[in-house]
Sequence to fold (1007 residues):
Amino acid sequence: MLLSFSILLLLGCLLLTELRSSLVDDVTSHQLAFDETAASMASNLTKASLTPDRYLAANNRYLAANNRYLAANKPSRHVDTSVSSNKAKQMSVVEHDVRAARFIPHQAALPPWQKQPTFIPELDTVQSRVIQGEVIVKSVPTQKSVIHGNKRQIEQEDFQEASRDSMQQRVATWAGHSIRCGRPLSIPYQDAPASQDLFIISQLKYGKLLLSDELFAYQEEGKQYLPMQLLAELLMLPIQFDANTSSLSGWYLSPEKTIDVSNNLMIFWGNGTNCNIEKTRVFYDDWDLYVERRVIELMFGIEIVFEPSRQGFSIAESATIPLSQIQERKRRYELFTAQQDLNNKLKVKEIKREDAMIGDLAMGLDLGIVSQKTLDIHKTQVEGFIQARSDIAGHNVYAGYSWSETDEVINAYIEKTLANSWVKHYRIGSIESHSMPLISESSEGVGIRVTAGEGFTEDFRYITVEGEVEPDWDVELYRNNSLISIQRVGSNAHYRFTQVPYYMGLNQYQLRFFGPNGETRSESFSKMLDHSVLDKGSLGVSYGAMLREQDDLQQHYVNVNWAATDSLTTGVSIVKQEIAADDWLIIPKISVNFLGEKNLIQVNYADTGDGFATGVIVQGSGEDIDWLADWEFFEDFLSWENPDDRLNQQAQLNLSGSFAVSDLSWALSGNWKDHGVASDFLQFNARVSGQYHRFSYSNEFRWQSSLHKNRIYNRIAASGKVQNWYLRSYLDLAVAPELEVNQWVLNANSSISDRLNYQVELNYHPQSDVAFSVRNSLAYLFDHSALRLVVDTHSDGDWLAQLRWNSSLLWQPETNLWLLDRISYLNTGAVKIIAFQDDNADGVFNDNEHAVSGLSFSGHSQSDKTTDHNGELLITHLQTTRPQRLLLKELSLADPFLVPVAIAITVNAHPGNIQEILYPVLYTAELEGNVMRLNAGKLQPATGMLITISNQALNREYKTRVEYDGVFIFDRVIPGRYQIFIEDKLTADLVLKPGDYLELDTITLEH
Fold:
């Protein structure tokens, strides 16, 4: 007993030290979230897509503009975004859509070892990035270097000679260190498309400033890769990503120190301390290029620290990237968001989830013939499982039914999530109750559960993660890349993880699914716990009534939470609980919560009239450690959490962090229970987890003291891919008082061919009736289903054989569309895009308007599909745990005078409804004019003056500047009624119709 209290006292001292440190640093900071999605799209000037007359007119105007430019040999009216002067910054950020303006880009001076690239002037690149809900659209030149094989070799020889002759230079950094490389570098790389399974959701900090709390980084073989385009946006670096060529171009510190990442070779000036990187890898998708962390450190001379326990990146402040500059950028972005929110919706359109009155039917079927021999008894039976999802009366409905000779299981519910309503969510049928400290943990049962109000959090210690998947699937749950638990789904097709850690700050969770036919998929989501849980004055309410599954006891409760301030909330609960058959208790409970920037304190008190219970929860996040402490005291208090008044008190302490010298994370925990009759229970856990190459692994030691006996256990888990094999191993050992194996499971599966999958599982469990068993599974994958033969052999001579067939079905009653696939439709969503030429710009597909065929979208697994002759494109198997962005491949839009209202759409798909999404494409207009200035009786071109045309109805503006000869041109303008401004003075009103080419009379300004 004395030893137990001594160990807890030591951990308490560590906690107190961390709490003091965290409270000192607990200051309010405004967070800025960035969506890392980026797109790069080039205008397609395909001659074949234009009528001859229109093409000749456009081409003549283009040639005339270029001839005027070349004759005067003056700078373009557009400014290269890589120029860092104040004037360039003002002119390079075009807040609206001027995507087809024709120009020849200004070429910055290049160092002697790099030759001047040959530019293709007729292509413009539109760069759009969603930043805290806004879209910044830039019209910048696509700079494509024309490099032939022999010229590339000569260029590299010149580059290497310059590298040898360059001198070491030193640049002071914020910490007093120096940049010792200081020479041009050439690093070859291999590129590959990014795999969705290897993305991690993380935070990015620069010093103490939070730049992004949802950064999609890439991790493979223990190395982290950061999105370069997003990093450039956040740190204000003059670097541009070209999605068409998966390349990077720009410069750093000075325009002479260029950066070029293309054609499997990186060329840049080394600014870091490690100049010995011989080769690297990069990964790409439709949004960004992901570059290895150590290469980024070398490229920019910065230090990037990755914390595995929090899945976060921290960049040390550097004199070359001043923090004040980033903060000013943040201020401008916030101002821009407030002023341009409506206009931004025209660029990236969010499609809200729709629940149908009579939706589509998504089904999963698994039928099997099972033959087995047990104790010399042989029998054969038929068993199966059916799942279904659909929308009925605006609600999502799920039902699952499994049967065999020995058991029947039904799991069903109806639920609805509401966005713009006081009631946020309700579910009837199979439910999970809310967790209430002191009274009851989250429980399974049948009943109703309702959540309402501005926000609601009753238990800050844990969350419950649950869902449905097909039987015999394995599910692994990870938090911040550390394995939490593993489950094999039973006949009810339901997985459920309870008491999942939930710490202050950002919690990243990932579910990894492994199917019996070799299927693998993953789902990721994040949950933030900070002082923003409830805003001042907001009210949160929850209600539940259930019949608990394990013992048929009932519970009814209502919880109310009110935010007295931005950081202080109070809660009241009334619980009616059946603690035994027909034995009811009414338990009132109050709670007070203090939520700081890095710390949380919750105090709970409950009273039954005959006794009481109280508890304190304290948790926080320090510089290097996350921690949680929980203490509960019971005095003659009965509840589901303390049946039969068994406990007098209990306490736990959890600490977690990461090792600074590696990518390993660690966790320590202690749990103590003071029983009323039995002896005290004490347990300590220590876990280390990490990733090596493509393997995730963890090792956990557990020491228990109960009934005056000490026991030590060890659990080792590893999961990952080796060549074509996916391996998973779980080993449970009893270390003391005797060394023995409790259970060892080894699973390996591989695709023998595109159609054939083999899986073997070894299970050693010496304490069970069957000490050793081997499962061999061979699955043949058809296009629309899978057929699987499974044979289990046991060490005692018994065996079990199964022949199973499974498939998934999607039926749309409205069109009588039937789809069969071996990939489940029950856990994925579908949308139907309908593209049309919106001639009257009303957003409605009218009878006299034409469908647009041939459009394709990236951002999903079927990106090779295009809209058909009806303008329709069905996209299935979309993720449902988070919004998914679909980006138009602009090269698939054959006519350059057609412009989509939204370049990208964000969909919120869900099973049970194929949501139809109208995708209007507008036939644009062109406008050309001439502005002259009358000066001393002579007409002179009004060169450089800002011309703006504004459409108040569309909340849209276009901007350009007058050229050297007085001409200004607007291309690809969405039709409508516009006002034209010269600088800030209204000049005229005009109406542009689809397909118009309007040439204005010369405008003369008096000097």
Q: What stands out?
A: The chain has a mean pLDDT of 78. The helical segments are 2-24, 52-72, 86-92, 149-165, 228-235, 293-300, 323-344. The longest helix spans residues 2-24.
